[in-house]
Structure to design on (358 residues):
């Protein structure tokens, strides 16, 4: 049995704060261990600088040096692989390359990005560290075509770049929706990109006829702003708050379609979850997002909320179209976006490294 060291510098998989990063880290750990491996979270040291603070970066580097030395000294000898999730310029892996170099452990990365444009400016040092960590990886697994662009351009030596499609942590599909209920949106309520998506939702709803209802799953520090945006629509919008897994699954199951514009989403786990129950999705045609949606024509960003409203109206007017589109999306999830596919992809790429290390 292979023992795998897992590390996520941006956010621990054990963090109590829900987010897509946390869920994806947990899913990746589950996919890796599904082949019988033991996966250990070897450090919860958070290396993250949101604002480009040189002082913070210096303190984090010092903490990382201490933590790396601890791991070099104490990591058991039976670890055969190190996996780092989401190394990038705001959250570089300052542990894995040092520990793996000292202990002779093969080092791979999941969902890393290269940002040469950040090698100047307030994140220059962290961007260089993230770039160097990418160079140290024998294999980098990427999730979207957009990520591949810079990874391929800056590929180091004979490094392997492997497409690991985003996936749900399940081996089968949940019960399908009949696509007859309210529309559903789901997203954290926080400033920035999430609030921008909610702003587009509010603008889109203003273009729809009056016989619609929308449920919204999510909560967060920007909830008051989201509620203010949607207040003009009264009780046609129902706020569900933050839901646990079962309650969110029930919301998907009773919905007629899923609506989330997807402003700057890396890809969006909610799209996979919605399509798994057979919901048609209305979203904008954006990098990352298009990688996890059923191939089709989606409204462009430039066409704005009116185009999203037209897409919604087409689906609302035609139950057969909703069900047919949702069924195709559901079949695609079964084929490409469940844990068995992810497990096969990961170990097919990594096993040669383990054989070479023995």
């Amino acid at each position: 049995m292979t023992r795998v060291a897992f590390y996520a510098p941006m956010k621990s998989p054990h963090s109590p704060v829900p987010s897509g990063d946390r869920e994806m880290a947990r899913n990746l750990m589950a996919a890796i261990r599904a082949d019988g491996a033991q996966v250990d979270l070897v450090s919860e040291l958070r290396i993250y600088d949101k604002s480009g603070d040189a002082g913070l970066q210096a303190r984090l580097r010092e903490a990382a040096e201490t933590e790396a030395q601890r791991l070099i000294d104490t990591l058991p000898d039976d670890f055969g692989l190190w996996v780092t999730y989401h190394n990038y310029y705001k959250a570089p892996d300052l542990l894995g390359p040092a520990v793996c170099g000292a202990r002779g452990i093969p080092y791979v990365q999941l969902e890393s990005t290269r940002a040469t444009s950040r090698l100047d400016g307030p994140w220059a040092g962290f961007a260089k560290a993230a770039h160097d960590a990418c160079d140290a990886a024998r294999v980098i697994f990427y999730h979207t075509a957009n990520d591949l662009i810079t990874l391929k351009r800056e590929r180091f030596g004979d490094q392997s770049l492997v497409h690991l499609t985003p996936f749900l942590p399940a081996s089968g599909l949940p019960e399908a929706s009949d696509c007859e209920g309210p529309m559903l949106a789901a997203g954290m309520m926080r400033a920035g990109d999430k609030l921008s998506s909610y702003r587009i939702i509010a603008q889109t709803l203003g273009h729809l006829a009056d016989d619609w209802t929308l449920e919204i799953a999510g909560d967060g520090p920007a909830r008051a702003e989201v509620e203010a945006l949607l207040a003009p629509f009264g009780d046609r919008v129902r706020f569900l708050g933050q839901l646990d897994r079962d309650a969110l699954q029930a919301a998907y199951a009773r919905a007629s379609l899923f609506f989330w514009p997807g402003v700057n989403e890396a890809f969006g786990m909610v799209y996979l979850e919605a399509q798994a129950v057979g919901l048609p999705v209305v979203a904008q045609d954006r990098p990352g997002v298009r990688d996890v949606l059923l191939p089709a024509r989606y409204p462009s960003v430039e066409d704005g909320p009116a185009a999203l409203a037209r897409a919604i109206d087409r689906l609302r007017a035609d139950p057969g179209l909703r069900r047919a589109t949702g069924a195709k999306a559901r079949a695609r999830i079964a084929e490409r976006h469940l844990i068995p596919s992810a497990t096969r992809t990961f170990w097919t790429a990594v096993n040669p490294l383990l054989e070479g290390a023995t």
